[in-house]
Amino acid sequence: MKTLIIHSFPRLLLTIVAIILFFAALQKVSAMDDGCAVAMSINLSSHEKSAWSHAEDYALELYDRFCTAGGEAHYIVYESRQAGIGSTRHAFIAYRDSKGQYWAMDNRRARPCWLMGTTPAEWLKSFSTESSARMVECVSDLAFAGRSVYLHRPAGGNVLMGSTAPDDQLAAK
Question: How many whole angstroms separate alpha carbon 79 and alpha carbon 171?
Fold first, then answer.
């Protein structure tokens, strides 16, 4: 009996390590859902994120993309004071992924960043590094509340925009 436990210990340890690595990889991939694909889209009006002169224009177009795709998104504009510069404005969008977590994207980022909290005030605090950041505007379409973007629709499935159901469930409706 003792020999069996000693021989199975390395196998058990290997299984535990594999499970931990699996969940670590799964956590990393959680940002890579359809919402992330929309957020990282480079085919916006300017074709280049860096070509945007105003973050508000970029965020507004991205917000429209999320609403068109049926996902919950929030267009947030904030103002902050910086010594020697004065007051500056910036904008970003916060969106909900398929696991219910919130992410932010703006014209300065290559990838979405995770946001703490569930309210625009908490997202701003999580997103902005400036302590003087003050929210100026937050636009949200309540019709999409609680929904994530789902780009894989069955043929003619645009009536079901915003659903997070798999294709087979959508086709059955």
Answer: 45
First to last CA, the chain: 56
Burial 52-77 (b: 16+ CB within 10 A, else e): beebbebbbbbbebbbebbbbbbbbb
What tens digit of pLDDT does each residue of 2-14 get?
555 556 667 776 7
The CA distance from 139 to 19, in Å, is 41
Chain segment 78-116, per-residue pLDDT in tens: 998 877 778 888 999 999 998 899 999 988 888 899 999
Angle in degrees, CA 144, 140, 38, rounded to 5:
65
- C-alpha span between 156 and 160 (Å, rounded): 9
Tokens of residue 92, six digits: 């970003």
Give the three-state DSSP class for 81. Answer: strand
Whether the CB-CB separation of 74 and 93 falls below 8 Å is answered with: yes
DSSP E strand stretches across the chain: 73-82, 86-96, 102-105, 113-115, 134-140
CA 58 to CA 43: how far, in whole Å? 12
Please tell me the distance from the alpha carbon of residue 27 to that of residue 1, in angstroms, as a whole number. Answer: 38
